[in-house]
Amino acid sequence: CLPARGLVNTGSEYALTTGWGNKGGGRLSPRIRQMGWVRIVATDPNLWPTNQTQVIYGHITPLTVGTAICDGDSGGPLVQYVSGRAVLIGVAMGWYNFNKSLYFSDCAANYPHSVMGWTRVSRYIDWIIGVINNDTYSGR
């Protein structure tokens, strides 16, 4: 399911992330999908990049393979269960290390103070519906 247009998570909520990405350390991609729960966090703009309308930030301690975005997980889902329905709230984009840079390689689990980022689906509902309906929608 899709979330309501403009929905913004307030933090301290949990969501499920999954992916087939590289587990880091030069290992090959796993033969099975990795999955794990992450906690959505409200970010401190002095510590991390912030834009609550476009990005969902998540963290779990300790970060482990399955609960962290790794190389190859970009585009993967971040799902919350609402009244028993799976709702796609985010699309994996990468993770931020302590130096506030966005990374797409390696694995966030290798950096204990990293914060992961997902593109907020609710920000793009009009575009998604336009594409599904094969409309000529070109807005952002």
From TrEMBL:
What is the name attached to this protein's record? Peptidase S1 domain-containing protein
Q: InterPro entries annotated for this entry?
A: CLIP_Serine_Protease, Peptidase_S1_PA, Peptidase_S1_PA_chymotrypsin, Trypsin_dom, TRYPSIN_SER
Which part of the chain is the Peptidase S1 domain? 1-133
What does the organism's lineage look like at the top?
Answer: Eukaryota, Metazoa, Ecdysozoa, Arthropoda, Chelicerata
Q: Molecular function terms in GO for this entry?
A: serine-type endopeptidase activity
* Residues of the signal peptide: none
Q: Which GO terms describe its biological process?
A: proteolysis
- PANTHER family for this protein: GH08193P-RELATED (PTHR24260:SF136), PTHR24260
The superkingdom of the source organism is Eukaryota
